[in-house]
Write a structure and sequence with these properties.
Largest sheet: 6 strands, parallel
Radius of gyration: 25 Å
Structural class: alpha/beta
Shape: globular
Low-confidence stretches: none
Strand order of the largest sheet: 1-10-7-4-2-3
Number of strands: 10
Mean pLDDT: 94
Number of domains: 3
Helix content: 40-55%
Distance between the termini: 60 Å
Strand content: 5-15%
């Protein structure tokens, strides 16, 4: 039975060798890079902003219990309800209970990676509840029956021609429809869905402790529509989304926008603090916040890797990563792809099944360089590798290889034994698969640097 590792290798080989896939991906990342350069010009001292954000997130994670309890207290004061979910099954059960009790048959969703993490749409479909993505990118991949390709831009792998083809097949729009025409059609098509939906479901970019606020940032207005019409609003958030104060948003919102899309600030930024009051015209009658663990406390228990909980999901590390730029988002086989996904997935799901992602990195450090909250992403990948070995998850063959490699590397005479001919034979016969099917193995030179140095310096 194929493993997640086998699936990753197979998908990576296909995508990395597909020039059309790489053309589309690199084109879209190039456009992103251009925008980010412009967005960063708003800062007189970007490094100071990143440092302050890193300290604030560190303080939030180190005092997670305190801030979460403060959030719950302030949110419930305004009539909201907080539900703590240990794992995906608990979260799904609570959502089903809320929707069934209210007789909901349709929900509208704003963009939310955490609902992808728990496969919410799939579970709602089994309960005969229609779940409609309202973010344009998410709606496109939902129509194609695909998971999001990227944390921020779900349809990054598609060209405008691909999207036009999808809408031609699903709605019989002209095959040459422009992005403007498609967006106009979706706007009209979804409007009735908002009005008929019994519940709106969102994620949360941040949870604000001192005001009990759920922060949702977006560019299309679909999230506000998703919670304005339905009678029920369910927000699902990971425990790590907490920040201490509403005033911290003036730091985090521009950082998220700049590193996520190159904007100075996202178009719509909403803070939801509970259901509508009696005299208010808009908003839900009931609002729930589901605080999801789902492996986060296991990550929190790691002295080094807990730093990854500071991630604000801007996606900058994905766009910078040379591995992601070659294999793309779907190859990872996880909700969270790229460097940060490779760090957190072994704890959110299984180190045994996903340890290979920590090795899918060049360790060039670009992910760390671009992170707006200064997470040492490439170092955390090394810690993951060490943990997988310490847990006995490395294959016996790998352990023996490194045992002999270490022996040789610590002894010059052992390294020089055998000569280039024998070493090339070993590489060809024992390491061919490790180098891939599309690359020639490097040839070891007839004379090593050590030998050349001794010849040049006989004394």
């Amino acid at each position: 039975m194929p493993s997640y590792y086998d699936d990753f290798i197979a998908a990576s080989q296909v995508k990395a060798a597909d020039p059309e896939h790489r053309r589309k991906l690199l084109f879209n990342i190039h456009k992103y890079d251009e925008k980010v350069v412009e967005g960063k010009k708003q800062y007189s001292n970007l490094e100071l902003a990143r440092q302050r954000a890193a300290v604030l997130k560190w303080r939030s994670i180190e005092n997670l219990e305190k801030y979460l309890q403060e959030f719950e207290t302030n949110f419930t004061k305004r009539g909201g309800k907080v539900i703590w979910a240990q794992d995906a099954a608990e979260a799904i059960g609570e959502i089903n209970s809320i929707l069934k009790k209210a007789g909901v048959k349709r929900v509208v969703k704003s963009k939310s990676m955490i609902t992808e993490e728990i496969h919410l749409n799939h579970h709602l479909e089994k309960e005969n509840i229609e779940s409609i993505e309202t973010d344009l990118g998410e709606y496109i991949v939902q129509l194609r029956n695909e998971p999001p390709y990227h944390i921020v831009t779900p349809a990054m792998h598609l060209s405008k021609e691909d999207v036009a083809k999808t809408f031609h097949e699903k709605f019989n729009l002209p095959a040459n429809s422009t992005p403007k025409e498609i967006a106009g059609f979706v706007r009209t098509h979804l409007r009735e869905k908002y009005m008929d939906a019994g519940a709106g479901i969102t994620g949360a970019n941040f949870l604000v402790a001192d005001s009990g606020g759920v922060v949702v940032t977006e560019n299309e207005g679909n999230a506000m529509m998703s919670v304005s019409f339905p009678k029920i609003h369910i927000a699902i958030a990971g425990l790590e989304k907490i920040i201490p104060s509403l005033t911290d948003l003036d730091l985090f919102l521009p950082l998220l926008a700049t590193h996520g899309t190159g904007q100075n600030v996202t178009v719509y930024n909403s803070v939801f603090t509970g259901p509508r009051f009696q005299k208010e015209e808009d908003g839900p009658e009931d609002m729930y916040v589901i605080l999801l663990d789902n492996g986060r406390t296991e990550l929190l228990a790691q002295e080094n890797q807990r730093q990854a909980l500071s991630c604000i999901r801007c996606g900058a590390c994905l766009n910078a990563c040379p591995v992601y730029q070659n294999v793309g988002g779907h190859a990872y086989g996880t909700t969270y792809s790229g460097p940060i996904g490779s760090v957190i997935t072994p704890y959110l799901r299984s180190m045994k099944e996903f340890k290979h992602l920590s090795y899918a990195s060049s360790l060039c450090g670009r992910c760390t360089e671009v992170c707006p909250v200064k997470i040492d992403v490439h170092k955390l990948l090394l810690y993951n590798r060490g943990d997988s070995v310490a847990q006995g998850l490395a294959p016996r063959s790998e352990r023996w290889i490194f045992f002999f490699w270490k022996k040789a590397m610590l002894n010059r005479e052992t390294m020089n034994k055998g000569g280039a001919k024998a070493k090339n034979f070993i590489l060809r016969n024992f390491f061919q698969k490790s180098w891939g099917t599309r690359r020639e193995l490097p040839q070891i030179a007839p004379r090593s640097f050590n030998q050349m140095w001794r010849d040049e310096h006989p004394d």
